[in-house]
Amino acid sequence: MRLAWLNAYALNSDEAQHAHVAWAWTQGLLPYRDVFDNHGPLFSWLHSPLLGWLDGRVDVLTWLRLAMQVWYVVALGAVGWMASRLYGWRVAAVTMLVAGLFPRFFIVSGQFRTDDMWMAMWLLGLAFVAGAPPRAWRYFMMGLSIGCALSVSQKTLVLIATALVAAVVVRWLRPSGTPRTGIRCWLAALAGLLLVPAIFTLWLAAHGVLGDAWYGLAGYNVGGGATKRHAAQQLLWFLILAAMLLVLCVRQVRRRALPEFDWTVFFVLQGGLFLLLIWFVWPLITKQDFLPVLPTLTLAIVGGLSGWRWLQQRPQLRSSLVVLALAIEFVTLIAYAPPWRDELVAQRAELTMVLHYTDPGDTVMDPKGDTIFRARPYYPVIESLAMLRLRRGQMADTIADDLVNHQTMLVVARRLPRETAGFVMRNYVPAGGDVMVAGRILSTPATEQTIEVSVPGDYVVTDGHQRLSGSLDGGPVADHWVMAPGVHHLALNSGAPVAMVWTQAFDRGWRPLLPERL
Questions:
Q1: How many C-beta atoms surround the C-beta of residue 424 within 10 A?
Q2: Which residues of the chain have pLDDT under 50?
Q3: 8 Å CB contact between 92 and 77
Q4: Who contacts 205 (Cβ-Cβ below 8 Å, separation ≥6)?
Q5: 245: Cβ–Cβ under 8 A, 6 or more apart, which residues?
């Protein structure tokens, strides 16, 4: 199913952004300094060899999505590992099937995004200790896995905070005299947690980009200006619902009175608190935020139902419920993302066009690294927080200046601020889809033209089929000219010009749309 659905997931702009950052590693560019990134460095660094191998392939996202199946397997394997220890192999099999086919989990975890590795490392960390005797090496491996998750996404801090609250509550309510996890295990966990982040911190400091990394990882995200609507009311709802969840979990722990750590209640409390934080406190809610707790909540629900005596006495009903749940998930998947529909067609067509008209050394302006294999002239990515800042005037719109300074001759015109969009409309010509090539449609077909150039570059004047030769600013006759910014006077030998366009794109087969065909 994962192979059949590779191209069926809706394209998310985060996928190209993460791919672009990973590709930048292969070009000797440093994250946070040369390429904007507001995620931890581990994911892009780990996948950079793959981007180096796939450099220039227009089907790159299909291959990258295929690579994400490794994290899908790790995540489900970790959940199955926990379930088999806590409830047995039958519950583990059902948990893996139900969690693995849950539509949101199945679809989002198939996209190329940091969150796939993030949730896999979090679940793997829990799997080392859930239901297992406390050992220092287990807690070290748990810390190491969660440290990897932290080196991928700062949202791990929220997971750690909710897990600590849940662990303290469940441990505090355990019957007296039951064995406790020793300080040695927790010190081992702390050492494992800090190891990978410390390595990256030292590496970033050695390369002089620690300050840039701090801005990308903390300053940009925290100071983004995004706020929750009706924040006070939402916070009140969070406190009320969190208190209700806490009371229910306390009652369950006391009722069950297990001699060992009650992992079922832990998963419910930790996952519930995390969901409530995302729903009511987190300023921006995205589908990928829920990935690490959907499997553990499924584990808790399936494990809890497996111990329900009424259901144990009805094996046929129990089997029917499993089949029904899987059937509903399967039908929902097909309805939401039919596997026969290719959602990457437009992305491949756009990438094909961009790579054909540009060289590796050319810059291309796109929102978030959409063209993957081309450097961007503008450092920030134009995502939700940036768009909010641009609208509020909290971030300068220097895109037009950067287009001029980097001689950027091709633009993917999406998510552009108003002033920049106007500049692009005046100085670039539609080339198909959202792609625009530097140039102008001339207002009159006269042989004497006064042309204003804003983006410097090599241009030709064409009637839509061929180059037209002439003299620029009284210079020798030529059929293309390197034009600096400013007003230029063009005298053509013959022909009726309709457009001035970038020479490189014209030489590679692109032709502007003639006015009479508009």
A1: 19
A2: 517-518
A3: no
A4: none
A5: 268, 269, 272, 273, 276
3-state secondary structure of 375: strand
CA distance 269 to 167: 9
Interacting residues of 79 by C-beta distance below 8 A, sequence separation 6+ = 92, 95, 96, 99, 123, 127, 295, 296, 298, 299
310, 336, 362 - which closes a domain:
336
Asked, for residue 1, whether it belongs to a domain, the answer is: no
Residues 428 and 454: their CA atoms lie apart, in Å, by 10
pLDDT at position 186: 94
Which tens digit of pLDDT belongs to each residue from 228-261? 666 788 889 889 999 999 999 988 888 887 878 8
**Number of folded domains in the chain?**
3
Does some domain include residue 2? no
- Residue 365, H or E segment: strand 364-365
Return the percent helix, strand and coil in the chain, to nearest 5.
Answer: 55, 10, 35
Question: What pLDDT is stored for residue 275 in this prediction?
Answer: 93
Contact 16/368 with Cβ under 8 angstroms? yes
Query: Is residue 479 included in any domain, yes or no?
Result: yes
Burial of 309 per CB tally in 10 Å (0-12, 13-18, 19+): exposed
DSSP 466: S
What would the pLDDT profile of 458-481 be if each residue is shown by its tens digit? 999 998 888 999 999 989 999 999
What is each CA distance from 109 to 303, 486, 508, in whole angstroms? 23, 50, 38
Inside any domain, residue 204: yes
pLDDT value for 518: 40
Tokens 């930790």 correspond to 270
Please spell the DSSP secondary structure of 176-211, one letter per residue: TTS----HHHHHHHHHHHHHHHHHHHHHHHHTT-HH
131 and 161 belong to one structural domain: yes
Longest dimension (CA), the chain: 99
Q: Which letter does DSSP use for residue 261 in this model? A: -
Amino acid at position 294, single letter: L
Domain that holds residue 113: 13-336
Round to whole Å and give the CA distance between 167 and 147.
Answer: 18
